[in-house]
Amino acid sequence: xxxxxxxxxxxxxxxxxxSTLRCNFSDSVNNLQWFHQNPWGxxxxxxxxxxxxxxxxxxSATTVATERYSLLYISSSQTTDSGVYFxxxxxxxxxxLTFGEGTQLTVNP
Amino acid sequence: xTEVTQTPKHLVMGMTNKKSLKCEQHMGHRxxxxxxxxxxxxxxxxxxxxxxxxxxxxxxxxxxSPECPNSSLxxxxxxxxxxxxxxxxxxxxxxxPGTSGSRNIQYFGAGTRLSVL
Lengths: 109, 117
Prior knowledge:
The complex is a heterodimer.
Chain A: E1 4-7, E2 10-14, E3 19-25, E4 29-37, E5 43-48, E6 52-56, E7 59-64, E8 69-74, E9 83-91, E10 98-99, E11 103-108
Parallel strand pairs in A: 2-11
Antiparallel strand pairs in A: 1-3, 3-8, 4-5, 4-9, 6-7, 7-8, 9-10, 9-11
Chain B: E1 4-7, E2 10-13, E3 18-25, E4 31-37, E5 44-50, E6 53-57, E7 64-70, E8 73-79, E9 87-94, E10 107-108, E11 112-116
Parallel strand pairs in B: 2-11
Antiparallel strand pairs in B: 1-3, 3-8, 4-5, 4-9, 5-6, 7-8, 9-10, 9-11
């Protein structure tokens, strides 16, 4: 099956700092989603981005499908950005999402 | 509205109990999913229902029994669970299974946190 690797596994920032999270995947994808899991367990959709670039407020994401990676940018981080960020992909012809191991982000005041 | 509702939010059960988890969506989605998530690990797929039919069973033990009574509802029946089954159980839905484009975006519920004593 498709392999998904996220880096870094842990990231600690001061409020106001910027960060870049990376997701590498091993095969062509039909679907790539970035999620934020809050401390209560809710998986919040951030981006659906199998290719291209999108922006939503302080967050943006870029997927370079030909090189099999995606980046999530967080600017001017806030304490409420803390939590685990997951990248999940679905390979072409598949019907299941495979998740990376996640990046645990801690933003300190 | 992109809401998937799961009940209960928390559940504590003994190893001899029978209980059920419930998931509901009213977005007209035709695929529904159960995932299991252990602490500090990513969600792992358990079951996929496509047009109310079970299409994927990831070799889940028979003590977990899914049911899809209609296109809006998904249940997970639990019986004779083990302590290692304690986890966060997540339900998700997507518009059209196995398609490309934004119709296969998965939306997740808030989960049921299950403890087996």
